[in-house]
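Session log. Operator J.P. requested a structure for one protein chain; no other inputs attached. Running the standard single-chain path with token output.
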Amino acid sequence: MKLLWIYLIATAIFFAIDMLWIGLIARSFYRERLGYLLAEQPRWAAAIIFYLIYIGGILFFAVVPALRDQAWTVALLNGAVLGLLCYATYDLTNLATVDRFPLVVVVVDIAWGIFLTAAVSTITYLIGSRLG
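Structure written below.
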């Protein structure tokens, strides 16, 4: 039951931070550079499935090991590595296969993935470690 609560906490944290980034901070950045590729409306089912799977990965690879070791640094480091692996896979695949995919988007998006995943992992660990 505790793991379910931690999953829900991680989901809320992830959505809050990522929606702030996508919806406000970087919206024009992506639209200016990828507008020719973007759908008129997001495909919410695909987005939600990705988020649910990815957040499960954050718990499995970063939060649960950090809770086991009682070390926020495990959450931070494992989260950063997971963010690097996942976002680099996506962005470098796009760079390799999508015509005119901008290198600046690759660099910014990978940096964002590292930050986002490390932050969500660490914050979730800090909250989860206090759940008794």
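Operator note: The chain is about 85% helix and 0% strand.
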